[in-house]
Specification:
The protein is of the alpha/beta class. It has helices at residues 6-18, 23-42, 57-72, 90-97, 112-120, 139-154, 201-205, 230-236, 262-273, 289-293, 313-323, 340-351, 365-370, 390-397, 401-406, 408-419, 454-467, 472-494, 501-504, 508-517, and strands spanning 49-54, 76-81, 102-104, 123-127, 159-163, 185-189, 207-211, 225-227, 251-255, 279-283, 300-301, 306-307, 310-311, 329-332, 359-362, 384-386, 422-425, 431-433, 439-441. Strands 8-19-18-17-16-15-14-9-10-11 form a 10-stranded mixed beta sheet, sandwiched between helices.
């Protein structure tokens, strides 16, 4: 499913009009879907007091349509108009015809009527300003939002439903005006907006539902940003032919783990194994093999030479490079550490890559080492995935974490274009970008995944999928999707506090099975 900026949505609306799809038709569909999703969200709508705020232009029109449907379904609906609408406004006329009480902010100078309406409202529909807002909120709009927010603080059980986006949320970046309400439900219209999948906007949006309002899919064919969906993930799963052998599903070399991060090696290798890769070979310091062998019984081993001072950089890198021809993918970085000998080892490997190297998946410490190498991306093949979290991305780009988090989508897209690599910017609403400009966004934000080791599982899953031969961008996005799906399954069973990275491992195959069964 495409994700569109406010400008792109305006262009799609224009294309729809040129294709003969009337604005009135789309508005009717939009308002009806807002009403339907509101009824679904609260379970029972009859006799509930609903206050609909209608602003100018189309967002207010959508709200007026929603008011009409909610009234028909037995709710006690009142509409508070924050700006005058034209006499030709069909939706206003229909609301009057249906005898829905209409109240005008222009006639409520002391907000007496607004106070009374809000005090009894069980549901508030925010149809004040949509995606077209570009200036700070002020005047009557600011006053109304301030009163909505005050009432929500007094009565947290009052439900706020946003039409398209909460008023004051930047649809493109997720930045919010101070007045922006904390919606319980956002019914975004036609196509989702990127600001709903970046903080702080995501926190203000509450639960996001995407409503089909009748815009043909082909009108968004040129949009390069997509939301990960079940349908897409199902289509991206690698085939599992009945006559396969372990070689069919690829061979992965995992260069991971160190004395201080032994668990990272386990998590990365099992993350790969649990998404169906045929063979995983763990290459780590020789002294760690006996410890890991007791737990990692399904992997093969290629121990690296070391001394009492750590890895022997020259010999270890030569050993790794000698194994490259036998593997489709090399995963490097999870738990490697930052020992000087380890840094030399990684740098030796990257400077000695053969003309046709395997796919490289670089995570964690490998990325921190990369950040010390000028123009590091020139040393790596195009078939490389880098998987930074915000801090690692900031180091790689030489900017602040705040800059990264402010607009994760565009930062990730620009990095992939600059580096000509597939980039996975981890975190809530993980962003995946490929060198051609395409971006996919995960809709998942799970606090349970904010614990040590979950990133190692993700890196292993991405590498394991890539080893099965699916396109690199698909492998990265599918790894993110399955990792998030497993996290949601664990959260559903045990909550998001105390979730461990190891809890994800046995659930990854269940996430795959669940996709196949849908």
């Amino acid at each position: 499913m495409k994700i569109v900026t406010s400008q792109q949505m305006m262009e799609i609306d224009q294309r729809a009009a040129e294709a003969g799809i009337a604005t009135e038709f789309l508005m009717e569909n939009a308002g009806r879907e807002v009403a339907r999703e509101t009824r679904k969200f609260v379970d029972y709508i009859a006799a509930k007091n609903i206050l609909v705020f209608a602003g100018p232009r189309n967002n207010g029109g959508d709200a007026l349509v929603a008011a009409r449907y909610l009234d028909e379904w037995g709710a006690k609906v009142s509409v508070y108009l924050l700006s005058d609408r034209t006499r030709q406004d069909k939706n206003l006329a229909l609301a009057k015809q249906q005898e829905i009480p209409l109240h005008f902010a222009s006639k409520d100078q002391r907000c007496t009527k607004l106070k009374n309406l809000l005090s009894s409202a069980e549901i508030v529909i925010d149809g004040i300003l949509g995606t077209g807002r570009s200036r700070p909120i002020e005047g009557v709009f600011k006053d109304a939002l301030g009163r909505i927010n005050q009432e929500k603080l007094k009565r947290p059980d009052m439900t706020i439903v946003a039409v398209d986006i909460p008023t004051g949320l930047n649809a493109d970046t997720g930045e919010v005006d101070h007045s922006c309400p904390h919606a319980d439900l956002t019914v975004t219209l036609g196509l989702p907006k990127p600001g709903l999948y970046n903080f702080p906007g995501a926190e203000r949006a509450g639960r996001v539902v995407i409503a089909d309002i009748g815009i043909p899919l082909e009108l968004s064919h040129d949009i390069q940003t997509e939301l990960l969906t079940d349908k897409w993930a199902r289509s991206a799963l690698p085939a599992r032919p009945a006559g396969a052998n372990k070689g069919t599903f690829g061979r992965l070399l995992a260069v991971v783990g160190s004395e201080n991060y032994i668990g990272a090696a386990y998590l990365a290798c099992m993350g790969a194994a649990r998404v169906g890769v045929g063979v995983v070979t763990l290459s780590t310091a020789k002294s760690l093999q006996p410890i890991l062998a007791s737990k990692l019984t399904e992997v093969t081993y290629a121990p690296l030479p070391e001394s009492d001072k750590g890895l022997l950089p020259d010999k270890a890198s030569a050993a790794i490079l000698g194994m490259f021809p036998f593997y489709r993918v090399v995963l490097m970085g999870c738990g490697l550490g930052q020992h000087p000998h380890t840094k030399d080892f990684v740098k030796n490997v990257l400077s000695g890559l053969p003309e046709k190297p395997p796919v490289m998946v670089l995570d964690a410490d490998a990325l921190n080492i990369l950040s010390e190498i000028p123009r590091w991306w020139k040393k790596l093949p195009s078939a490389t995935v880098v998987t930074p979290h915000a801090g690692e991305m900031a180091r790689l780009l030489g900017i602040s974490i705040e800059e990264v988090q402010r607009n994760r989508l565009e930062i990730c897209r620009k990095a992939a274009l600059q580096w000509q690599k597939t980039v996975v910017l981890k975190g809530a609403f993980t962003v995946i970008a490929e060198p051609g400009g395409k971006v996919r966004i995960s809709s998942a934000a799970n606090a349970g995944l904010a614990s040590a080791g979950t990133g190692d599982v993700l890196a292993g899953a991405i590498a394991g999928l890539a080893a099965q031969g699916i396109p690199l961008f698909d492998a990265a996005a599918l790894g993110v999707y399955l990792h998030a799906a497993a996290g949601e399954m664990v959260k559903h069973e045990m909550g998001d506090a105390g979730m461990l990275a190891t809890d994800l491992l046995p659930v990854l195959p269940k996430a795959i099975k669940g996709l196949k069964g849908r």
